[in-house]
Every structure is written in structure tokens, then in C-alpha cells.
């Protein structure tokens, strides 16, 4: 197993033992169950556990958090270990991954719930209601992700999308699409700057208004057409 970085103790605090157990579970079962690629085993800590946990820097104490497309439990499980004050729900559509998440939660004795389904489904949205924070890691391009995640947020809540080097390009490309579904201007931030060799890049989007209905969009479009005719 890859050695535990010194920064892990600072990130996970009292939860370090739990983080080590999660890393061991991923190392033992992650590849055979299709949760991580073979090359990821040697970089579980920096690329996955610490990369996920440090986004807690951006999350208020006691927040209600939904992790969309949780997969192997990233970023949700490391976040739950590092921040036991959070109220976390993991949303995942694939049954075998839901089984994995349930096993991990039981093994690590975490106060986390798992919901099988997709964030865009009406039944899932109804069950979740609205929360303070939605997280997502390697799930979808920003425009599509905003359409799935922002409806789960209360007004003033925020989406934290873990992205790579192309984050700023995605923001420039998808800014108008994010606005159409009720998001404010996306900002690119880094987490774990003093802790990780490569900080985690996060795109932050605040929900500033409800998503416009199809009828409202048609009405706005009609107004725009009339304005052009009379201009």
C-alpha cells in the first residue's frame, strides 16, 4: 500500500484511521470492482482521498451536502471522514456501486446515506429536497452538471465541481448555460494549497434564482423577438 502522506493527518485529523481503512478498501477491491483504474492504486492518497477531502475548506459547518455521481465514494466518503459535522447523502445510479458505498459506510461506521438514482430524476429531486452544497467529481461537463445539480440547491447554496486543468475553459464555454439554470457567475478556486503538491481545482457556482420554466423561457424569447422588430 502507498505510504500515508504527512499532510493526511492535517486533513483528516481524528479521522485519519478511517481514511487509512478506506484507502485499504479501495486498494483491495477498487480495481476488481471497476471503481478505480489499475494505475490509480499507487496514488490513492494524493489523487483521490486528499484531493476530495480538502474541498471541505469551502463548506460551512453542519451543512447539508449531496455528492452527485459518487461512484467509488469520491469526494463524498473522504469528505465525511474529514468533516463528521456534515450531513451527507451520496447519489449514485449504478447498483454495484451503491452496494460498494453501503459496504464502506457500514465498515467505517459513517453517518452517511446513499440514494440510488440520477440527480436529474424527478423522484430523486423530490426525495432530496434542497440542500446547502452539491459536490461532483468527474461526472459531466459544467453546463450539464449545473442543470443536474443546481435544482437540488436552496437559493444561496453552492455547487462544488472538482475539475482539472481545463476548468477555466469550461467556465468560459458554459457560463451562459449555467446562468440559464439559475446559477451565478462560476468561479475557479483551489483547495489544499498549503497541503497538497497539486491543489484541487474547484468550480464554484452559487444558485441565485430558481431555474426558469419552459413557459418562462418561451415568454422571454417572444419578448426578445418583439424588441428586435420594434427596435
UniProtKB/TrEMBL annotation:
One GO location term (cellular component): cytosol
Organism, as annotated: Amycolatopsis acidicola
The keyword rRNA processing belongs to this UniProt entry's keyword annotation: yes
Protein name according to UniProt: Ribosomal RNA small subunit methyltransferase G
Keyword check for Chaperone: no
Family affiliation: Belongs to the methyltransferase superfamily. RNA methyltransferase RsmG family.
Function: Specifically methylates the N7 position of a guanine in 16S rRNA.
Family annotation (Pfam families): GidB (PF02527)
Superkingdom, natural source: Bacteria
Broad EC category: transferase
Sites where the protein binds S-adenosyl-L-methionine: 69, 74, 119-120, 137
Amino acid at each position: 500500500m502507498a505510504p500515508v502522506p504527512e499532510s493526511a493527518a492535517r486533513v483528516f485529523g481524528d479521522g485519519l484511521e478511517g481514511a487509512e481503512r478506506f484507502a485499504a478498501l479501495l486498494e483491495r477491491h477498487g480495481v476488481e470492482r471497476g471503481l478505480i483504474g489499475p494505475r490509480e492504486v499507487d496514488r490513492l492518497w494524493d489523487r483521490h482521498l486528499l484531493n476530495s477531502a480538502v474541498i471541505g475548506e469551502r463548506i460551512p459547518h453542519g451543512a447539508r451536502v449531496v455528492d452527485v455521481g459518487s461512484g467509488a465514494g469520491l469526494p463524498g466518503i473522504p469528505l465525511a471522514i474529514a468533516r463528521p459535522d456534515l450531513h451527507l447523502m451520496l447519489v449514485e445510479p449504478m447498483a454495484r456501486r451503491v452496494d460498494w458505498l453501503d459496504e464502506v459506510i457500514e465498515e467505517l461506521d459513517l453517518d452517511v446515506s446513499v440514494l440510488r438514482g440520477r440527480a436529474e430524476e424527478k423522484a430523486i429531486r423530490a426525495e432530496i429536497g434542497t440542500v446547502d452544497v452539491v459536490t461532483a467529481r468527474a461526472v459531466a461537463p459544467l453546463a450539464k452538471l449545473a442543470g443536474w445539480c443546481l435544482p437540488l440547491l436552496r437559493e444561496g447554496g453552492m455547487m462544488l465541481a472538482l475539475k482539472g486543468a481545463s476548468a477555466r475553459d469550461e467556465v468560459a464555454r458554459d457560463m451562459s448555460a449555467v446562468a440559464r439554470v439559475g446559477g451565478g457567475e462560476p468561479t475557479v478556486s483551489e483547495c489544499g494549497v498549503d497541503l497538497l503538491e497539486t491543489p484541487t481545482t474547484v468550480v464554484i457556482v452559487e444558485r441565485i434564482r430558481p431555474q426558469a420554466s419552459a413557459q418562462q423561457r418561451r415568454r422571454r424569447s417572444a419578448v426578445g423577438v418583439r424588441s428586435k422588430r420594434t427596435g
